[in-house]
Recover the amino acids of this structure.
């Protein structure tokens, strides 16, 4: 059974950091590009970052460029999103996407 499970979300103050994980099971991620998305309340789902199969190509939404880093560990079958200098507007549910598979998301709340 294919499954993606995100974790690592939480409540942090502005300027703080979080590291999100997306653990895959039921298949190997090594042959796929991977994307992170986020969805804030009442808003559409937005693309955040992408990483290529080899990991050498990474792209970011302009709103997170320079603050977020996407990475992958094929041996662990896991994708990560390191988020630094977090802002209140980063508050959202963060979801990972591989092909047509989605996780359930992890809540990130940035508030003082």
């Amino acid at each position: 059974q294919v499954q993606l499970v995100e974790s690592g979300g939480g409540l942090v103050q502005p300027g703080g950091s979080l590291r999100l994980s997306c653990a895959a099971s039921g298949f190997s991620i090594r042959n796929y590009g991977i994307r992170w998305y986020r969805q804030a309340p009442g808003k559409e789902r937005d693309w955040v970052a992408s990483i290529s199969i080899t990991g050498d190509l990474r792209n970011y939404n302009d709103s997170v460029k320079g603050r977020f880093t996407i990475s992958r560990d094929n041996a662990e079958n896991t994708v990560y999103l390191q988020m630094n200098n977090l802002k209140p507007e980063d508050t959202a549910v963060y979801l990972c996407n591989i092909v047509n598979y989605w996780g359930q998301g992890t809540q990130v709340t940035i508030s003082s």
The chain is about 0% helix and 50% strand. The radius of gyration is 13 Å. The chain has a mean pLDDT of 97.
